[in-house]
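Lab notebook: predicted structure, single chain.

Context: the supervisor wants predicted structures on file for every construct in the current expression panel, including those that have not yet been purified. This is the next one on the list. No modifications to the sequence; it matches the entry in the shared construct table.
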Amino acid sequence: MNKETFRPYEDELESTLRKCVQTVKTIDSEKSTAALKRLKELNNENVEYALDMYK
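Prediction complete. Output recorded below exactly as produced.
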């Protein structure tokens, strides 16, 4: 598979991750910004994808 097109799939939790990222970004507080920063520091491809979706 082409890694640029496909990412490893992490079962049903991926859609939950996207919803959580969207909600935390919508809150837009100091705590939510800190939480997003901690998520980004995980260097997880699925987290990066979710964060990129809601820039």
